[in-house]
Amino acid sequence: MGLEKLKDSVAALVKLGPARKDHWIGLRTGVGVFAPLITLFAVDRLDLVVFAVFGAFTGVYGRVDGYWNRLRMQVRSGALFFVVIALALATSYWWIDHANPEVKQWQIVGATTLVAGACSVLVGFMRLRPGGSLFHIFAFAAIASIPEPAPFGEALLVSALTVLLSIAIGAAGALGQWANVWKRTPLPPLSDNVRRAIWWEGLFYILSAGVAGALANTVGSRLEAGHNYWAMVAAVVPLVGHTTTLRIRRGMHRMLGTLAGMILMAILIFLNPQVWVLLAFIALCQFMAEMLVMRNYFLAQIFITPMALVGVSLVTGLSGAVMYDRVIETLIGCAVGMLGVLLGSWVGTILKRRRGIVPKRETEI
After folding, report:
1. Model pTM score
2. Nearest to 138 by CA among 308, 303, 346, 275
3. Is the C-alpha dihedral spanning 200, 206, 209, 214 positive or negative?
4. Above 50 in pLDDT, residue 31?
């Protein structure tokens, strides 16, 4: 029985789930991130790249049928990203003590932990998909960590324009299909159980992100690893899934995919291409990530890893240091996330038994 589970786990690394027109969302997000990046390169404003990248995350929230339904979701997600980016900028400007690295680390963890919980709840009540606050954690912490961010107004303008571009690209398919544009799917009211689940999920995001950030600041710093927020991002990855098995598998895929993605990153560092090539590489990785993320998280992570590393290295230059940081922080975060999932499952089973409820055997879907 144990051998069969091992074989299934190994097979899951390369097994692709059913396709759901993934190439279209891959194309939309790839164009949505490349167009603003190459524009900023042309005007020599790479200091604004990070704001364009996180604004372009709006395009990820487009896996929904119907142009009106997609527009509704992307407007909501874009508005939330803009608020997160603005809040991160304000935090960096007026609260984070960039002159004191030790204090700064704990400030980033504390503020990002609150954002993790708040955005998880907001995403739940706003009916956004994908669920959770992984992207918002990444965006807030990365921007808040910048010691000398771009001018406030310019950064927000780039973010807003990128959000609008992503929304426009998402709606572009409606051209010539006016009869179908106004077809919408009414959102049913949230039940009391769903509302409670949203609040509980927000608490789990707070605990996972907070513990991972604290460990990254203590254990990670002793290992001389930076970017503590990468651990916080990795910690919430296992929270997505219908069963404990699927959540643990997702955490494992995050770790293994990160290690495999380092091969691509190492090749890129060796080749040391020009900046415009790196921008095209980011767009290609975004395309591949969206092509694969719903079908095989391990394979998607192979492209997500170098995309993230190149994004944070555009201004400072490619180096092996970010590779080391990514591996250490990912291992810390995934370990926290998976242990949290197992602990939560164990506590849940005990509570169900005390109430006389027989826990159902998990079935993968």
Report:
1. 0.92
2. 308
3. negative
4. yes
